[in-house]
Amino acid sequence: MALRPPKFFGVVDNGEHVVLDNPQRYHAYKTTLKGKRIELVLREHQVRSGENPRGFYFGVVIPMLTDADIGYEAHEWHDVLKKQFHVKTIAKMPNKELWEFIDQIRRWAAQFHGVKIPEPNEIDY
Question: Which domain holds residue 103?
Fold first, then answer.
């Protein structure tokens, strides 16, 4: 799975300067594009329905585990993870609990399978 480029958030101050929330991350990413043509989009931030734990889980976590070729297909991973972490369902799980479940998966994937699943703020989903 090719990851989407990261989004960077911030504000335009009274002097019309862009002040980024995480300038270090921006500068680190910018160095990977040295010498390449880029596309820059600057717009007011809109909260999208995809910015939620379920969107991250099914749009990032499951595809990354599938792409890691660990032995399961995309349609199997959800059941595997529920069994691994003793979760019956995520359908009515509160967002806070679902983010905690995702954090457990991220740590487990890194420790036991070498799969680094990014933080939700590190990727567009």
Answer: 53-119
